[in-house]
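Dear colleagues,

As part of the handover before I leave the project, I'm documenting each prediction I ran so the next person doesn't have to rerun anything. This entry is a single chain, and its sequence is reproduced below.
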Amino acid sequence: MANAVIIGGGPAGISAAVYIARAGIEATLLYRDGGALLKAHDIRNYYGFPDGVSGEQLHELGLRQARALGVNVIKDEVQSIDFEDTLVVKSSSGTFPADAVVLATGAVRKAPSLPGVRELEGRGVSYCAVCDGAFFRGKRVAVLGSGDFALHEAKELLPLASKVTLLTSGLPAPENLPGGIAADTRKVERIEGEESVAGVRFVDGERLELEAVFIAQGVAGAADFARRTGILMDGAGIATDRDMATNVPGLFAAGDCAGAPYQVAKAVEEGRRAGTAAVAYIRANTAQKTEA
């Protein structure tokens, strides 16, 4: 029987698995965890949840749906994708030959090893300005980072917050900083607050009063995987066509690993496209083998 392997248990991976399984093709979902979704403590911009839903709840509902459709869900860590007679996914627990593979590995958000980051996640420390910016309307916020991603997040917050500060923590501030965004290049020592973020303390001892800190220290992960498998990249994301196909036949990518914006709705739709395209690819290959 034809089969597909989906790598990643976030919205994109589960969406792809659902569409593949509903098409009558055996689907195996390999995932390490729920990825960035688990950092979302209160999602209020996703269809069907008027009172909001936590990322953890949404992740569990997705896994339950996949299992109900017969998807073989395995908590595992993928080590490589090889090319033999067919695609072969190798993980810490075994080897999985596949007629098609969907990569939905997410994008690793780099979290600094600063005191207060982990302790205040969901209580003023966020990883997504689009997701959580509205919670801090009229408040003083900061973005911790210095690259293009950090600047993008700061721009997203500009129409919402009363004050936006870019904290580069010792790195140079971006050139041509938009008006309304302040830059502070002092090295950050820790994020402070009891029940919620109250500010940041710099190594010089001074403090900046804040209600939120958005972490935006780059996006990594997809490039590392691509280098090992020969997949082409488009900036920080894996390059795909409209059907989420990569340059490697039978290998598709969806969700955060395919690039910004990093939104649940976008990941679910890309997962649908990747899953549907994987089904079409498998059926076309099966038909060719039958004719031969």
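Residues 264-291 form the longest helix (28 residues). The mean pLDDT is 89.

All the best with the project,
I.
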